[in-house]
Amino acid sequence: MKKINSRPASLKEAPFHYCPGCGHSIVHRLVAEVIDEMKLREKSICSLGVGCAVVAYKYFDVDTVEAPHGRAAAVATGIKRVRPENIVFTYQGDGDLAAIGTAETLHAANRGELITVIFINNAVYGMTGGQMAPTSLVGQKTTTSPAGRNPLKEGYPLKFSEVLALLGGSSYLERVAVNNPANIRKAKKAIAKAFQHQKKKSGFSVVEILSPCPTNWRMSSVESCRWIDEVMTKVYPLGVIKEKKC
Amino acid sequence: MKGTIHIKQELCKGCSLCMEFCPKGSISLSKKLNLKGYFLAEFDDKKGCTGCATCALMCPEIAIEVYRG
């Protein structure tokens, strides 16, 4: 019998530290597979945000830079301007990108920096224990909103990709999920497309990935995959949000 | 049998995603623990395997190797 799958070469052998059922590990694999397939391993530079994926340099076998909290897009801007021949991407969670990093990400998009942002949206602050994030849904129970998010006090879920789509510099924005096999395949295609947009210098590209966080959602892995389908995608609809011709 | 899988015990975290999405229902949660203390996923070849690799696609830990013949 022939082996039909193997660990991507752009992922180191280290076992993931993420919780059982976490979407981060799936996205790591997809990014590594795309890097392998597009032969970008020697050319890629990753700028990492702070969050559960803060130690992704242990897993990605590409050059990585650890950015200050929320500033991954700003660090990536510097790298890309100095080394325009490289493919530069950031890997950030929603607490990093949509909260503390709002300004940096927004302005990088508005300037049309030629970088790709892999934006993991799990609607909570995962690493610090499941606090409410700007992306938390209305009524979602978290450790800092035990009665559910109240929009009158805490505002509404921040649809950051839609905000970025309004800016002239953004080129490709797609929201995908990693909760079932079909969506995982689509997510991989979206990541590959975002890298293509960067290669063709068409502008800022973002792939927002709805990712399960079973531990902080207080659900089983299977329940959290269902919750993405039944609840989360109603607020964050999947699909291409903006695509410039390139 | 068209396919088979091998689950790397030291990587599996027993998250059950492979079991949920296996079209044949050939994977189940065993009562065995690995070194990290997780219950392991177990492959039952009696129920058959088409080698579709859906389990490997879903597995967050890249713990499943799929063989097709």
Structural features, described:
The complex is a heterodimer of chains A (246) and B (69). Chain A has helices spanning 23-37, 72-82, 94-100, 102-110, 151-154, 160-165, 181-199, 214-217, 221-235; strands at residues 2-3, 44-48, 63-66, 87-93, 116-121, 124-125, 131-132, 170-177, 204-210, 239-243. Chain A has a 7-stranded mixed β-sheet, sandwiched between helices. Chain A has a two-stranded antiparallel ribbon with strand order 6-7. Chain A is built from 9 helices and 10 strands. The mean pLDDT of chain A is 96. Chain A is globular. With 246 residues, chain A is α/β, with parallel strands linked by helices. Chain A has one domain: Rossmann fold. By secondary structure, chain B is an alpha+beta fold. Chain B has one domain: Alpha-Beta Plaits (2-Layer Sandwich). Chain B is built from 2 helices and 4 strands; from the N terminus they run βαββαβ. Chain B has helices at residues 17-21, 54-58, and strands at 3-7, 27-33, 39-43, 64-68. In chain B, strands 1-4 form a two-stranded antiparallel sheet. Chain B has a two-stranded antiparallel ribbon with strand order 2-3. In chain B, strand 2 and strand 3 form a beta hairpin. The longest helix of chain B is centred in the N-terminal third of the chain and has 5 residues, at 17-21. The model of chain B has no long low-confidence stretch (mean pLDDT 94). The interface between A and B is medium-sized, with 29 and 27 residues.
